[in-house]
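Hey, resending since the last one bounced:
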Amino acid sequence: MLKIIKNLESISELTGRLFAWLTVLIVFVTFLVVVLRYAFDIGSIALQESISYMHALVFMLGAAYTLKHEGHVRVDIFYRKWSPGRKAWVDLLGTVFLLYPVCLFILISSWDYVLTSWGQHEQSGEAGGLAYVYLLKTALLIMPVLLIVQGTAMALKSLLTLKQGETTHG
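The structure tokens again:
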């Protein structure tokens, strides 16, 4: 089971580290937009839109990485003081009854929206904007899948913790 957990978590780790580099690119492109605008009086809608695209990708495709590293907001008043077994129960039940349903809702409700965008090869509504809106919208389908993968790793870890607790107490 540890190998499965490690393989699942490696997906979150890889995507998180990969898309984190977009933050560096966001800074560079933002700098470029400012220099072009104020130094050369050149504007670029495509460059400005690319910043929004990258920003969206960082958050949507980095969510599973953040979940893996417990970076999401959590009310820790009670949780931090609890035993590993109790924490495992909270993580397991939270994954099954909160994370999975929300991810499935996002996946199902976004499906037609993304397919329609692909069918039209949706482009920016702005003159000179980016032509690949449908690619960005695909992240609406990738994000919940990545979260489900990481959630499964968390659930398996919780089950492993609970099983180990049984063997040490039983």
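The mean pLDDT is 92.

Sorry for the duplicate.
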